[in-house]
Design goal:
Length: 217
């Protein structure tokens, strides 16, 4: 997966760099809830008052649930998720997406049928949802619609929310106009482009009225 530099682009990461950056991305997603669990345990170790103990236990429960949901989502979105040629149930993908993304601020409207799709298409969909979530930092709704049907189905994710916006450089990373920077944030849209290419698709990110649309076609 190495590449050459051209004006306005950076050299694509090699396989080791890609693996390392994706691992960094997963660690970035997990460090907050895991850190909160540690903080809660430290409060319990101090023999707290009953009300502080209740608060610490609630923090641990909530953070453990968040960490578990993020791990399950990352396993599907970034991991192997079965052997080569494996298929994944869109119902399972919906469950993982809701557990990871729906947090009281952001909700998902899922208009996809329940069927098995090749794993790379499902991984592509989950990564599209991550990108779409970044366009509504204050929360809102992600609406997932199918394009086509059957095993060749692709997807359209519509983000609506207060001050929906295009994140800096993400559209260029998806289109290949800009190479990925050496950080965990830029590697995710770059990886999304690789997944789309593996499926014979192209991912675009563009405004449409007050909404932001992520499309794989």
């Amino acid at each position: 997966m190495s590449g050459t530099s051209s004006p306005g682009t950076a050299t694509a990461p090699d396989m080791l760099e890609l693996a390392a950056l994706l691992c960094s991305r997963v660690c970035h997603d997990l460090i907050s809830p895991v850190g909160a669990i540690v903080n809660g345990l430290e409060v319990l170790d101090d023999d707290p008052k009953p009300e502080d103990r209740d608060f610490a236990l609630e923090l641990i429960r909530k953070s453990a649930k968040t960490a578990s949901a993020r791990l399950q989502f990352c396993r599907l979105a970034f991991g192997a998720a079965g052997s080569s040629g494996a298929q994944i149930d869109l119902g399972d993908a919906q469950t993982m997406a809701r557990g990871h993304i729906e947090d009281g601020k952001c909700t998902i409207t899922w208009n996809l049928p329940r069927l098995l799709l090749p794993k790379n298409r499902v991984k592509l969909l989950l990564n599209m949802l991550v990108i779409a979530q970044h366009t509504i930092p204050r929360g809102g709704t992600l609406t997932v619609d199918p394009i086509g049907e059957g095993e060749t189905m692709s997807f359209r994710v519509t983000s609506t929310g207060h001050n929906a916006r295009l994140p800096q450089n993400i559209a260029e990373l998806l289109s290949g106009e800009r190479g990925p920077a050496a950080d965990a944030h830029a590697i995710q849209p770059y990886y999304t482009r690789l997944l789309a290419q593996a499926c014979g698709l192209t991912v675009t990110l563009a405004p449409e009225g007050e909404a932001i649309i992520v499309t794989a076609s």
